[in-house]
Amino acid sequence: MTEKFHIATGLAKIGLYLRAEGWQQAESESLTPTQGQILVHLVRRGPARITALAEELAVTQPTASDALSALIRKGHVEKRSDPADGRASLLHVTTQGRRVAEVMAEWPDALLSAIDTLETGEQAVFLRGLTRMIRELQVRGAIPVQRMCATCSFFRPNVHNDPAAPHHCAFVDAAFGDAQLRLDCGEHEPAGESETSTLWQKFLGTSSGEVDAPPAATGETS
Ligand code: SF4
């Protein structure tokens, strides 16, 4: 068995643990895992249409629809008309739903402790590896588009000479390193297709020049 199969086995074991935790957490709030995911998603991203929700959570529309009907029945979500289109409706989390979502959004202590066993440098390497894998899955259409730095128009990869913080986020105007790469950022602004490809090459350090000039001209200094 080669390393890649060992890695796949390890990921499957962590996935199994997270699925079991997800069921347990959802059950404690009398929800299904899909209902819990929808609730957390609506709190993090704000009101959404059902089609967008199904797409972002990679579930079918009937599955999202069933879960939403249950959430509305339980008083966690309500439908309001979309100000942008009177014929469409947006799903909003109620105050009660927000309280439940806070519980659902907590990561299990055991998982956080396991991550803490990695040194800071190991965490950075791990996060960079995860970013590469998630990007590949996204390119292959295996998962929905993720709101990660590597596909964000605010991302300036490898623009600083500091090995601990070579990247720059133009949204917060700050330098950061691989250990702070985001995989689900609320401020993410999707870059265009060709821009994403350029960003990706620069992130991997395979573009010509390797390190660009710092973005001082646009006020994006570290
Ligand atoms: S806005 Fe978020 S996703 Fe975009 S570069 Fe900054 S931290 Fe990364």
Automatic annotation (TrEMBL):
The cross-references to SMART domains, in alphabetical order and at most eight, read: HTH_MARR
Q: Which UniProt keywords apply?
A: DNA-binding, Transcription, Transcription regulation
**GO MF:** DNA binding; DNA-binding transcription factor activity
Does the keyword field hold Cell division? Answer: no
Xref: InterPro entries: ArsR-like_HTH, HTH_MarR-typ, MarR/SlyA-like, Tscrpt_reg_MarR-type_CS, WH-like_DNA-bd_sf, WH_DNA-bd_sf
Query: Could you tell me which species this protein originates from?
Result: Martelella mediterranea
Looking up Pfam families in the UniProt record yields:
MarR_2
User: Record's SUPFAM superfamilies?
Assistant: Winged helix' DNA-binding domain
Tell me what this protein is called.
MarR family transcriptional regulator
Q: Which residues form the HTH marR-type domain?
A: 1-135
